[in-house]
Amino acid sequence: MKLSSSIKILVFCTFLLIFSSPIFAQNTEKQELFFIAPLFETIGYSDESTAFGGGLTIGTGSGIAFGMRLLYALNPEDFTFVEILFFLRYYFFGSGANTGPFVQLNTGPVLYIDNITNLKGYGNISAGLTAGWRFSLGNRFFLEPAARFGFPYLAGAGVSAGFRY
Prior knowledge:
By secondary structure, the chain is mostly beta strands. The chain has one helix at residues 5-24, and strands at residues 35-43, 51-60, 64-74, 80-91, 100-112, 123-137, 141-151, 155-164. It has one domain: Beta Barrel (Porin).
């Protein structure tokens, strides 16, 4: 049986595409194993004043990341609190992404160190949504502005600068 030249060309091109596709499917993005970032944030736990504070974010993952965030903050009315938040983050640029836009779910306890008169108890459960953008500063460093909304706070915004490994 003799094959026509057009069938030979079609078979050759099919084999070429099948066996050459792994060459083009390489992942050029560097996977992130671990990141740590000091942060500064302003947050509205009261409708009368804004709290300012600092903390630390520790996490792992590319594409979908998770970790923990600690924040110590105070406002001018002598209201001091500590947040211990756990987060789950999704980067919009794909499964290997660790830069660019992201959205993050936060939840965890907030502990009131000094009580405000209209707050009952010593703490609350905090839950919210954060949106931000991670800007890469070379291979290992990044800058990350973000804004968040949730409960029991009204809104917050901050920036962190960190190191990834």
